[in-house]
Specification:
The protein has 500 residues and is α+β, with helices and mostly antiparallel strands. The protein is built from ten helices and ten strands. The strands form two sheets. A seven-stranded antiparallel sheet has the order 4-3-2-1-7-6-5. A three-stranded antiparallel sheet has the order 9-8-10. The protein is elongated, with a radius of gyration of 48 Å. Bound molecules: zinc ion. Zinc ion binds next to helix 8. It comes from Arcella intermedia.
């Protein structure tokens, strides 16, 4: 029974069985890994559905909201089924397989240990017996009954133990295969059971998928138009840098609420009636239409314009456009302020950006177009400007050499620095010694001059409780406060001096 042949067979079977148990262990370990990952996936999905549920109210679109609700619902169904699938797979396969491997490995180990012990005992008894026999003289019958009995008993024990071990190995092979196949079949059932319901979970959102696709198609068109417009504008900017002779290309059109400040505003908050009108920025002009596409009511040249946001109004998205308007007799120019209200924060940003581009482009193109003949038509304009403006418009310092070409005034270098620091673009403050001016700018400068501008901008200065005119000696803070009050908040202006 314990022949070398039998031992060899037993050892081969033992190897196969151990390998089989090891395989089952690895498979069930991997299945448990997959289940843990699945559980993590499900909890991440849950977090996603919660976030989507929070987000949907901010879409401000009923159909999109409903679509998103359906998606959240579907995800929640999906999670439920996925969790159930994981639990079932653990139940039908992974846990029983782990238990099986653990239990059978343990009993194999015990049986193998006791078999080893019995083999050792058997070997000891056998060698003791043969030693006795070999020492014995030939043909003498000696009594070895006790030893023979012991030998017989260990043989029987060894045989029983070997058979036990062999049958355990067989049992593991047969039972193991059976359990494995039934586990795999159970897992297949789970997938069949849940994959259907998981897919069904998403059927409910099919209708809304169409809504979403429609929305995307529609929005894509809008976004593409917008990108094209931004692209065009970038090209326009580039062209201005590369080739200043190009005509202004920044353009935009749309509805704005509008109030003419010069006529209606007494205090900043006290704006009379606002009217909704169609406006356009086009080829360096700001154009007001009677209605969309209808005839032009008025055009303002943006060459000497400036824009700024107004956050001190009752309304949101308001900005102020200051342009130079010719007086009724056409002999001089006066600043005119338009209060405009965009329809949204985005629209406001777009209008402001387009205005700024248009103003810059106007200046660049005008400069290059007119520089050539500026000295021809007004060869001594620098002398004329000096005579017209003997003192700084702000502090009265003699011989100002800096020009604000959007206001048409001249300043000393200290005051011009403050003008630039309060947001007047560099291009709009020029040195009359270093920079050349184009014809239109020269005409404006010759038309406006410090005295005329101050008649408007400092009309109420004498009545001011807080401010007096600054001098060249004024400290920097006073100079800054005065210039801000004079130009930014226009504190000293009167409304009745400006008429269209
Ligand atoms: Zn000054």
């Amino acid at each position: 029974m314990d022949s070398p042949m039998f031992r060899k067979q037993l050892s081969d079977t033992e190897k196969d069985t151990k390998w089989f148990l090891e395989e089952i262990k690895q498979i069930s370990d991997s299945v448990i890994d997959a289940c843990e990952m699945g559980a993590r996936f499900t909890s991440a999905l849950e977090a996603i559905s919660n976030l989507l549920a929070d987000l949907k109210s901010s879409l401000h679109n009923n159909q999109l909201e409903q679509g998103l609700s359906k998606l959240v619902e579907a995800l929640s169904h999906y999670q439920t089924h996925q969790n159930a699938l994981i639990v079932d797979i653990l139940k039908v396969f992974a846990v029983p397989a782990q238990n099986f491997v653990e239990k059978e490995s343990q009993s194999l180990k015990e049986l193998s240990k006791s078999l080893g012990k019995l083999r050792q005992t058997h070997d000891t008894v056998t060698s003791k017996y043969f030693k006795k026999i070999s020492k014995q003289a030939p043909f003498v019958h000696a009594n070895h009954e006790a030893l023979e009995e012991e030998l017989a008993k260990t043989r029987t024990d060894l045989r029983v133990s070997s058979l036990d071990y062999a049958s355990k190995l067989n049992e593991i092979e047969v039972l193991g295969k059976l359990n494995f196949v039934s586990g795999v079949s159970g897992v297949t059932d789970c997938f069949l059971k849940y994959s259907g319901t998981m897919v069904e979970a998403f059927n409910g959102i099919l209708v809304y998928k169409e809504v979403l696709d429609h929305f995307l198609k529609k929005s894509k068109g809008v976004v593409e138009d917008e990108l094209q417009r931004l692209f065009n504008r970038r090209i326009a900017h580039k062209n201005v840098e590369k080739d200043v002779t190009n005509s202004p290309t920044a353009s935009m059109k749309g509805y704005l609420f509008y109030a003419n400040k010069s006529k209606r505003v007494k205090a900043a908050q006290d704006v009379g009636s606002w009217q909704r009108r169609f406006f356009a920025i086009d080829y360096g002009y700001f154009v007001k239409y009677k209605s969309s596409g209808d005839k032009v009511v008025k055009r303002w040249n943006l060459l000497v314009a400036s824009v700024k946001k107004r956050t001190d109004m009752d309304r949101s998205y308001v900005f102020e456009l200051t342009v130079m308007t010719p007086s009724p007799d056409g002999r001089s120019m006066f600043p005119e302020s338009l209060l405009l209200q965009a329809e949204s924060e985005e629209q406001l940003a777009l209008w402001l950006e387009t205005f700024r581009s248009a103003i810059m482009q106007s200046l660049s193109s005008q400069n290059s177009q007119n520089l050539k003949d500026s000295t021809k038509s007004n060869p001594d304009y620098k002398e004329k400007l000096k005579l017209l403006n003997p003192k700084c418009a702000d502090c009265n310092k003699r011989d100002p050499e800096w020009a604000s070409i959007n206001l048409g005034i001249m300043m000393c270098i200290k005051c011009s620095g403050i003008h630039r620091s309060i947001g007047v673009p560099k291009l709009l403050v020029k040195s009359i010694l270093l920079d050349d001016m184009d014809d239109t700018t020269i005409k404006l400068m010759l038309n406006v001059c410090n005295d005329k501008a101050n008649k408007i901008l400092e009309a109420n200065l004498k009545e001011s409780q807080t401010f007096t005119k600054i001098t060249d000696e004024s400290p920097q803070e006073d100079r800054e406060a005065f210039i801000k009050a004079k130009y930014e908040t226009r504190s000293f202006i009167t409304t009745n001096t400006i008429e269209e």
